[in-house]
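Q: I'm writing a short explainer about Tetratricopeptide repeat protein for a general audience and would like to include a description of its predicted shape. Could you first generate the structure from this sequence?
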Amino acid sequence: MAAGLLSEQVRAALQAAEAETATPAERAEMLMEIGIGLQTRPKSPDEINSAIELYDKALTVCPGELALLRSRILARKATALQAMPEQGTKSIELARSIFEAIMPELTQLATLEETAEAEMNLGLCIQSLAAVGRAKISEAIAAYQRALRTFTRTSHPKEYAILQNNLATAFLSMPMTDQRGKMREALAVQAFEEALKVVTLVDDPVEYAMLQNNLGNALQYVASSHVLENNLRALEAYDEALKVRTRETMPIEYANTISNKANCLWNLPGHASNSETGRGINLSMALVYYREAREIFLAHGDPGRAQIVSEASMQIERELMELSALLDRPTTLHS
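A: Of course. Here's the predicted structure. Afterward I'll give you a sentence or two in plain language.
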């Protein structure tokens, strides 16, 4: 949207909100609704800035005794701040402080769904800040778990799936240096599986593929005594993701998934009855995937990832040569 046209729309909204025929509460709600319209699928940061301007104006005209309306306007402002692109963390920290400030009033006065939505967004703020060392990831997990009291699998499947995915990524971002780390890895796997109970290939293929890819990664790296079983389950998850992520339609996502699958094959032991031959087959398949991924990454201007898979390919080539030499070695028979 052109900046000039956007400015005119904002001015028109502000003028409409000054209409003497409307009560202060009605004007505040009008400004909030227009802000929500600008914020929904914004085409530029200007639209988000304009939405924040409208929310601030709404707060100035909203009667002080209407605590719930003020909290709703503040919640919308906080979500706009979350969406604001920036280099630092100023906007996201302000959004967090707003959500924390309005939570008591939402809990007391708002619907359960409104409160749960605010908890979910608070969790997102904290998780973003935790990634740069500005918050504790455990506080994000607590916010997601509070939201799940309302957003259940049966009543709100879409929100439930989002929360389970967020929980899983939060668990995996925590240090895995002790026994509790193993438990968090298992909880991440469980959360991805819970999300996949409501996200289907038919209804939401892109989300389904993302969750299957993430589940595969979690299974591949989870500390467990069932390494072979987890790796086989991971391969199944990657194959599910590849039903959606094709080279033609989603080349980068496809390359990411086949790289993950290659790594899983690399670490997969051969069959017990013929382990060397099975190992060789797994390594050969991994090499094919890594080479294809490198080709795609280079074609789409990502030399960093191309270098990573290239180094993996060279390591696999060396392992295949060593394995070939082992298989060619004559067997000594003992009487």
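A: For your explainer, you could say: Confidence is low (pLDDT under 50) at residues 331-335.
Q: Perfect, that's easy to follow.
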